[in-house]
Amino acid sequence: MTPTFAEEAVLGALMLGNDKFHEVATVLSAEQFTSPFRRNLWESVRDRIRDGEPADPVTVSELMPGQAQEIWAICNNTHSLANLKTYANIVRGNWRRREAAMIGAV
Fold first, then answer.
1. CB of 16 within 8 A of CB of 97?
2. What gap in Å lies between CA 73 and CA 70, rounded to an integer?
3. CA 59, 88, 106 angle in degrees (round to 5)?
4. What pLDDT sits at residue 4?
5. Averaged confidence pLDDT in the chain
6. Taking the CA atoms of the chain, what radius of gyration do you get in angstroms?
7. By the 8 A CB rule, do 70 and 1 touch?
8. Which end of the chain is more exposed for a tag (fewer CB within 10 A), N or C?
């Protein structure tokens, strides 16, 4: 499944502005992301922020060294934190549609 731009926007925004995590932490969870990489990235960012440590492209790349290039690309393509909540809601909505489609396919 192709990842959405909203997923990348959420992850990039959180790495650029850790203080915004609380705005989306109740809306999103790892399983709502479409790829194992993005799920792992969410968990790495979340865990660092919850532990009171910075979660930026450098610190997260240290946790996921084989994917550092992708992490930096996501951050470099993130231009604003302004619509973070909207993007999080898009990710959640897309996940709900995927879940409904799987239930309907059973």
1. no
2. 5
3. 110
4. 80
5. 93
6. 13
7. no
8. C
Locus of tokens 């549609």: 97
Spatial CA neighbour of 31 closest among 84, 98, 87: 98
Answering whether pTM is above 0.85, one says yes
- DSSP at 32: G
pLDDT in tens, 30-79: 999 999 999 999 999 999 999 999 999 999 999 999 999 999 999 999 98
- Six-digit token string for 6: 């909203």
Residue type, 82: A
Tokens 């409904």 belong to residue = 100
In order of 55, 78, 80, 84, the CA distances from 21 in angstroms are 10, 15, 14, 9
User: Residue 29 has which token pair?
Assistant: 């969870």
